[in-house]
Amino acid sequence: MPSITITVSAEAHARLKKLKQGKESFSQVILRAVPEPPARTAGELLDMLEREFLGKDLVNEERMKIVERGRKRRSKRPARHAA
To answer: Does residue 23 fall inside a structural domain?
Structure first.
């Protein structure tokens, strides 16, 4: 596996060193401690969400009734008006 040299502050090095477990390398510490982002672009995020929720009934009649009941309630807090 190719390697790349990076520069980190003494504080960052000390934190990484504290996170090391056994004979773990700094690369292994970083890969364990820093999660892979779920998506790098909005398109990737949309694809992920479509795969996750494909075929699931996200909006059903019972949920809509709950929303409608909630919308009919009034807050007892005084109204705040923009200045």
So the answer is: yes
Q: Contact at 8 Å (CB) between 20 and 29? A: yes
Contact between 29 and 16 under an 8 Å Cβ cutoff? The reply is yes
- Under a CB-based contact definition with an 8 Å cutoff, are residues 26 and 20 in contact? yes
Q: Does any domain span residue 77?
A: no
For residue 70, what are its two tokens? 């909630």
- The answer to whether 32 touches 22, Cβ cutoff 8 Å, is no
Residue-by-residue DSSP string for 12-59: HHHHHHHH--TT--HHHHHHHHSPPPS-SSHHHHHHHHHHHHTT---S
The boundaries of the domain holding residue 65 are: 10-71
Q: For every one of its 83 residues, what pLDDT tens digit does the chain have, with 9 covering 90 and above? A: 789 999 999 999 999 999 999 999 999 999 999 988 888 898 888 888 888 887 777 677 787 788 777 776 666 777 777 65
